[in-house]
Amino acid sequence: MATTLYIDADACPVKEEVYRVARRCGLKVFVVSNAWINTPREALIEQVVVDAGPDVADDWIAERAGRGDIVITADIPLADRVLESGAQALKSNGQPFTADSIGSALAGRMIGEHLRSMGVPTSGPPPFSAADRSRFLQALDAAVVRARREAL
User: Fold this and answer.
1) Residue from 45, 20, 2 nearest 133 by CA
2) Hey, which residues does 45 pair with through a beta bridge?
3) Using an 8 Å Cβ cutoff, are 61 and 10 in contact?
4) DSSP 13
5) Exposure check for the chain: N or C terminus, fewer CB within 10 A?
6) Which pTM value belongs to this model?
7) Phi/psi zone of residue 68: left (φ > 0), alpha (ψ -120 to 50 degrees), beta?
């Protein structure tokens, strides 16, 4: 079972880091988005442009990711789906989604949606930093090690 990396790419700030790890480890990468994104033309990196629409990219990833794979996403419902299939899910700041954390993440998302529907202003994520990028690289390396261990 080979590990595959899936990037929910529309707003992902760590695509270059994923490519670097994929090259070093010899891993296939699918860069999934609703529009064309400039991606390296390499055998290991494949761009997938899906139809526009809510959750189309998420559905494409969720239908394919499974045990031993790693999904890079900020989308909490997508993370929940891929965790259920046995894949790992990482945010671009290096924070993993886990079976223990996904329930509270989903609840927090629902509360935020409810507050916004009532007109209450909510804050977005903090600005992406160099420290986030570094944590992501460390977390992705650790996720690859876990995935390879599962494959044994």
Assistant:
1) 20
2) 29, 42
3) no
4) T
5) C
6) 0.87
7) left
